[in-house]
């Protein structure tokens, strides 16, 4: 038993009708597990810690994260929101989400209750695909601002590191989830194709309008917070037999990266960390989307003047982001 049997469960004891529906799952994921990226043993090196240590959260912060939605205000906001809605719709289809597994579609980003939970295999397909996409925009934005700074001989004012760190953080999410499954050829092909399309789309979109692109990422992260809130709920309700088990072994890479305390290393604890990360990305990108892209400093890494310290933003609990007047003045 243990992690090995995780993926056998969804494929055992299914009726013929259900089995037909789950073809996608079987192609996305394989049923056996092996260590897919073991640390390379070398003569001199003992270990390689992450270059960006995780800043950490208090338990209160992690528990207080909730799904939120920033209503679109401009045409650009509306465009970004509709694109994310389309992406969510396509993801629901790709994951094979049945009607009874849907949340209230009138409030798709905030409602988390559904008649039927997703299976663990559906969850894995969903989060692995989501995370492989989520690691792209920060890298593109960081890269373009870096190149802009080089060719215009201008300071960047602290945006680049936050954007690069965001994509690093997303990649850690992906690596953690890929430790929980062996990804099949079909899923690998989907990831490859999606990256080809998404990288180029982000590249063009960030050149044309970084403001709309940050808003788009803000909306994407609203979906991520929604996804992980629903996952937490299903773990807590005991809907997912393996992951609801407090003895389920989460990957070592997760324990190291988030410096997870002994006795606080269940799947629920892990998802609480990941959800808080998504909430930070949501707050940061919605805020950056409100700023002057050329002149404004990154408020999340800035020191504030004496007397103005209370203006310093904290992204994790600010679901709709800060308005420019609140943080820049
Ligand atoms: Fe993520
Ligand atoms: Fe994210």
UniProtKB/TrEMBL annotation:
Gene3D superfamilies: Alternative oxidase. Its main location: mitochondrion. Keywords: Electron transport, Iron, Membrane, Metal-binding, Mitochondrion, Mitochondrion inner membrane, Oxidoreductase, Respiratory chain, Transit peptide, Transmembrane, Transmembrane helix, Transport. Binds 2 iron ions per subunit. CDD domains: AOX. Fe cation 1 binds at residues 131, 170, 173, 278. Fe cation 2 binds at residues 170, 221, 278, 281. Catalyzes cyanide-resistant oxygen consumption. May increase respiration when the cytochrome respiratory pathway is restricted, or in response to low temperatures. This is Alternative oxidase. It comes from Staphylotrichum longicolle.
